[in-house]
Specification:
By secondary structure, the protein is an alpha+beta fold. 34% of the residues lie in helices and 25% in strands. The chain has 2 domains: 135 residues, 60s Ribosomal Protein L30, Chain: A; 158 residues, Phosphoribosyl-aminoimidazole Synthetase, Chain A, domain 2. A 7-stranded mixed β-sheet has the order 8-10-7-11-9-12-13. Helix 2 runs parallel beside helix 3 and helix 2 packs parallel to helix 6. Bound molecules: adenosine-5'-diphosphate and magnesium ion (MG). The site of adenosine-5'-diphosphate has 13 residues, from strand 4 and strand 5.
Length: 322
């Protein structure tokens, strides 16, 4: 199977047709129509075999995952998806694998209304780079830099579960093959849910001052937001939800660490005025207020203990084949 047969069979007509997409695959560039008063949001994420997913992993889930982590960045800017491109490197043209990969990717492309509009197909060690394009109203876009002292910090999404899922996949990479056997934590790691609809709903209805998606751990990503905004934060650890599966598997101390520092959850952290919290909760009932922005720098507990924002680090020995 040559490059063009692969593109035609598996990477064409993937996801819905959107009116903004004037040209998708088949020309030298895709063409997107951006409306007046909107900004184009762009982001790219690469997933590498045995680094971001085990080689044996269910290809359906790999297809979902590599798009999901890119879409999470659009959610973090409150951008409506317009389309994505896929640069994929394949060791061989394995049709059974490609078919499942493309089905998993299509499932999320349809769900998020984000069509595949171009890409590049090459031979080599398995990896995929997904570049997403989104549109965001100029007056609505979220950035990391808008937090100010006094604003509350809210969390949307579950923390720690994906880290637990990663640990269990590292222990048992063979299990990665059978997605039907995955528990909640393994699903959280392999099948993250980008919070696009929630972000768009909140952006419409509430004044969100700053936002970031949590991909490298709560503390690490919160620290990025705080540094961009030149503020500090006070976190109420009692309000931080520890997932029961994480508590049960790891015990209290490690569960708290996984919640604060585990990566791959693709939750959202937002800051807003306290008086807007009820409105925000009426739009997204799962929002939890976990703390507040304060003058200064760094992250502290209510009791004043400094929390070290050391999150997931790609260069730690944390690969599926080591
Ligand atoms: P070019 O040489 O002009 O870059 P290619 O020959 O690489 O174009 O690709 C042909 C067409 O197929 C282009 O429109 C490209 O965007 C698309 N394409 C290539 N690989 C992929 C892929 N993995 N997914 C989606 N579209 C792809
Ligand atoms: Mg090319």
């Amino acid at each position: 199977m040559d490059e063009f047969a692969i593109i035609n069979s598996y990477f064409t007509g993937l996801g819905p047709e959107l009116p903004e997409v004037l040209e998708a695959q088949g020309d030298d560039c895709a063409l997107l129509q951006i409306k007046h008063g909107e900004l184009l949001a762009l982001s790219v994420d690469t997933s590498v075999v045995d680094r971001h997913f085990p080689a044996q992993a269910d290809p359906w889930a790999i297809g979902w995952r590599c798009l999901a982590i890119a879409l999470s960045d659009l959610a973090a800017m409150a951008a409506r998806p317009l389309g994505f491109t896929l640069a994929i490197t394949l060791p061989e043209a394995d049709e059974a694998w490609l078919s499942e990969f493309s089905r998993g990717m299509r499932a999320l492309a349809d769900k998020a209304a984000c069509p595949l509009i171009g890409g590049d197909t090459t031979r080599g060690p398995l990896s995929m780079s997904v570049q997403v394009q989104g549109a965001v109203k100029s007056q609505h876009h979220w950035r990391r830099s808008g937090a100010r002292p006094g604003q509350i910090i809210v969390l949307l999404g579950e923390l720690g579960l994906a880290h637990l899922g990663l640990l269990s996949m590292l222990n048992d990479p063979v299990k990665a093959k059978d997605s039907k056997a995955w528990n909640k934590a393994e699903r959280a790691y392999m099948l993250p849910q980008p919070l696009i609809t929630e972000a768009l709903r909140l952006a419409q209805g509430v004044n969100i001052h700053a936002a970031i998606d949590v991909s490298d751990g709560l503390l690490a990503d919160l620290q990025h937001l705080l540094a961009s905004s030149a503020v500090g934060a006070q976190i109420d650890l009692k309000r931080l939800p520890i997932q029961p599966e994480v508590l049960k598997a790891l015990g209290r101390e490690a569960a708290l660490k996984a919640t604060l520092q585990g990566g791959d959850d693709y939750a959202l952290l937002l800051t807003l005025d306290e008086e807007d919290f009820e409105l925000a909760r009426s739009l997204c009932p799962n929002l939890i207020s976990i703390g507040r922005c304060v003058a200064g720098a760094g992250i502290r507990t209510l009791e004043g203990k400094v929390l070290d924002p050391q999150g997931f680090n790609h260069f730690l020995p944390q690969a599926f084949n080591e």
